[in-house]
Structure formats: structure tokens, C-alpha cells
Amino acid sequence: MVSSTASAPRPPGRPRSEAARRRILQAAHELLDRDGFAALTMEAIASKAKVSKATLYRWWSTKAAVVMDGFLAANEPRILFPDTGSVREDIRHQMHRVVELFASQTGRTIAALIAEGQTDPELAEAFRSRWLSIRRIEAKQVLERGIARGELRSDLDDLDVVLDALYGPIYCRLLVGHAPLDAEFVNRLADFVINGISAQPATAANLERSPNSE
């Protein structure tokens, strides 16, 4: 007879599964930085994360998918958008964070991933869907807040073009290296684009730099 005070059966091992996922993502990111995408293997990820290949393939069907998820997990918190109440400052702050990220080893990794994606369709698709598309959705939400608050023109009907104007030059300087990718460039680029889509003409007040924008 089982005592009425006996504890209930333990739930399935979800915490252990989540811990394994975190180890896999960390391993994928560390190996990407160390070895590069081409040399990295699913076997190496599984070994470093101390999981079986079956566990790895249960959650990711391709190397590109797990590598990009590991890259995202490691870097997403560093480039989140703030909500300062000003679309100009939200965009500018986040662009500064992107440039700081690109100035690190991560920037070299991104450049390498973009380059390798030209001959690896799976990597190119993983980069677009897991990294670029998510960033663009977040940026569109910031622009939509600016439109709703009357900061930006209400007739903006193609936010993708706005995002290309804001971030395309950053990726261009990262990949081509023809000019500095620094705080001064970010400030001038952000002001140049946002002035063109603002509901009100630019003034000295709305161009004033915030303490954290340099």
C-alpha cells in the first residue's frame, strides 16, 4: 500500500533538456568563433556540449540552423532596441550597439558567415531567417511606434526601404572596409535617414546627441 504522503511522480526531465539546449548553443557559438563555419561539424558540437548526435538532430536538422541559433543566443541581448520615447534615439542607440558588436570578433564572424552564405544556400537561409529577419521585425516595430506618436511621416509605406537605408551602409562598411565604422558615422547616418522621414523638419533640439550616443 502506497502512503498518501508519498510524493507525486517527478515530471519529465525538461530542466535537463533546457540545460542541454543551452550547452549546445554555447558550444556551437564557441566553435564558430574558434574554427569558422566551414570547419565546424555537428559531431564537434555534440562532443563539446556533451550530448549525443541524436539529441542534437532532435532540435536542429542542419549545421547552419544550430550555428545561427547559437550565434543569436550569444549576441541578441547586446543589440536590443531601447524604448526612450524618441524613435530617433531608439534607432541611434541600437545602431551604436550594432557597430560596437561589429567592431569585435563577432563582426568578423558575421562577415565570414555572409561570405560563406554566397556558396552555401542553407547557411544563407539560416542567416536571413534566424538573424536578419528577426532584427528587421524589431526595427519595424520601433518605426511603427514613431509613426503612431507622430514623430515620423504617416505616409511611410515601405519600411523595408527605410531599414535598408539605415542599416545597409553599416553592413557595407563591415564587408568592404572602405571607411570607418564608428560612432561619428552612426550619428550622421541615423540623422540623415531619420531627417528624411520625420514628420517635422529637423531642428537643433531633435538633433542634440544624448549622453550615451557617442
Plain-language structure description:
This protein has 214 residues and is mostly helical. The chain has 2 domains: 15-68, Homeodomain-like (Arc Repressor Mutant, subunit A, Orthogonal Bundle), CATH 1.10.10; 80-197, Orthogonal Bundle (Tetracycline Repressor, domain 2), CATH 1.10.357.10. The protein has 9 helices and no strands. The chain has helices at residues 14-35, 42-49, 53-59, 63-75, 87-102, 105-117, 121-148, 159-176, 183-197. It is elongated, with a radius of gyration of 22 Å. The termini are far apart.
Major sheet summary line: none
Q: Order of helices and strands, N to C? A: HHHHHHHHH
CATH architecture of the largest domain: Orthogonal Bundle
Kindly state the percentage of residues in helix. Answer: 55-70%
Labels describing this entry:
single chain; 214 residues; mainly alpha; Arc Repressor Mutant, subunit A; Tetracycline Repressor, domain 2; 2 domains; 65% helix; elongated; disordered N terminus; disordered C terminus
Q: How are the SSEs placed, and which strands pair?
A:
Layout (H helix, E strand, L loop, with lengths): L13 H22 L6 H8 L3 H7 L3 H13 L11 H16 L2 H13 L3 H28 L10 H18 L6 H15 L17
Helix pairs in contact: 1-2, 1-4, 4-7, 5-7, 5-9, 6-7, 8-9
